[in-house]
């Protein structure tokens, strides 16, 4: 029997991303976000939802760009710190010793140490209650070569991305390989 948990903003799990922006003076800022995801294939796009009072919120509106930095388990403490502190009062990259790098295609920084970076141009935004949903067109995805398989696709076991379990406020790593997407379902039923 299923138990109702009520109307809540939880889905299990959610990716943990670090959003990179510049402020009006050109200072790099990074902020942890978990209300995120791919939202379109053509053009390739992501959605990042942030509260209006967040430092990153104004930065995205001013610069019309942001980066998505996908941390590995190696940067768990820094990733959590980026969500605990505000760019209004802290220079987070200086405090953690991580290296902001100017994006090649957008007016936003990314973190050199993080294994995967997505450069995004702001396509639009809409207010959704307590948050603003920012839609960013993906202009480029950069990944450390050692994170790629021989065929050029990402190796999630090397990447070791973080996920968050909302409600319990717990970080986890990615689990074991279970099967090939768009393939294992072919063996589910006798109907083809």
Automatic annotation (TrEMBL):
Keywords: Flavoprotein. InterPro entries: Flavin_Rdtase-like_dom (IPR002563), Flavoredoxin (IPR052174), Split_barrel_FMN-bd (IPR012349). SUPFAM superfamilies: FMN-binding split barrel (SSF50475). Residues 9-164 form the Flavin reductase like domain. Gene3D superfamilies: Electron Transport, Fmn-binding Protein, Chain A. GO terms for molecular function: FMN binding; oxidoreductase activity, acting on the CH-NH group of donors, NAD or NADP as acceptor. It comes from the Bacteria. Belongs to the flavoredoxin family. This is Flavoredoxin Flr. It comes from Thermacetogenium phaeum (strain ATCC BAA-254 / DSM 26808 / PB). The gene is flr.
């Amino acid at each position: 029997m299923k138990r109702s948990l009520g109307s809540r903003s939880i889905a299990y799990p959610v990716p943990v991303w670090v959003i990179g922006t510049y402020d009006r003076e050109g200072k790099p800022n990074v902020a942890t976000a978990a209300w995120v995801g791919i939202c379109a294939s053509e053009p390739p796009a992501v959605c990042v939802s942030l509260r209006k009072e967040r430092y990153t919120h104004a930065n995205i509106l001013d610069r019309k760009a942001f980066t998505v930095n996908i941390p590995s388990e190696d940067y768990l403490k820094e990733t959590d710190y980026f969500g605990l502190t505000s760019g209004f009062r802290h220079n987070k990259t200086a405090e953690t010793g991580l290296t902001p790098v100017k994006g090649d295609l957008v007016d936003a920084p990314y973190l050199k140490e993080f294994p995967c970076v997505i450069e995004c141009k702001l396509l639009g935004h809409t207010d959704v209650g307590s948050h603003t949903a920012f839609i960013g067109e993906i202009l480029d995805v950069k990944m450390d070569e050692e994170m790629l398989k021989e065929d050029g696709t990402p190796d999630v076991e090397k990447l070791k991305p973080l996920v968050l379990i909302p409600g319990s406020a717990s970080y986890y790593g990615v689990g074991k390989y279970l099967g090939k997407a768009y393939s294992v379902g072919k063996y589910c039923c006798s109907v083809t």
